[in-house]
Write a structure and sequence with these properties.
By secondary structure, the protein is an all-alpha fold. It is built from 5 helices and no strands. Helix 1 runs antiparallel to helix 2, helix 1 packs antiparallel against helix 4 and helix 3 runs antiparallel to helix 4. The longest helix has 25 residues.
């Protein structure tokens, strides 16, 4: 199960990095919103995969919240509110900080 967690975290690292970057950009540049929708879809696709092989813990527990957040982010972007989408992404309680906790200790996910 630890291997499944390591693999999932590795697969999420680059798409989530892109999601964060394009989320920030799209909050100020409306022309980046289509790219933001694409990035949301990529991350959602990975997180929506069957979590059965993942060990109990922070990542597995957060996945339902993550999927809900990504849907709310998509809806906000489609309404033209990329700033709201970014606020959902960076929420200090339920945002993607919880992914960093779930993948802590794996390459690219070190806590600072």
């Amino acid at each position: 199960m630890a291997d499944a967690l390591a693999e999932r975290c590795e697969r999420l690292r680059q798409p989530v990095t892109e999601l964060v970057a394009i989320s920030m950009s799209a909050a100020y540049r409306a022309q980046d919103q289509p790219e933001l929708l694409r990035a949301i879809g990529v991350v959602r696709g990975i997180l929506a995969e069957d979590p059965a092989a993942l060990p109990e813990g922070a990542l597995r527990d957060w996945i339902p919240t993550a999927l809900r957040n990504l849907e709310q982010m998509r809806e906000a972007v489609e309404r033209g509110d990329a700033a709201k989408s970014y606020a959902i992404l960076t929420d200090k309680t339920d945002g993607f900080i919880r992914l960093a906790y779930g993948c802590a200790g794996f390459p690219g996910w070190e806590q600072g």
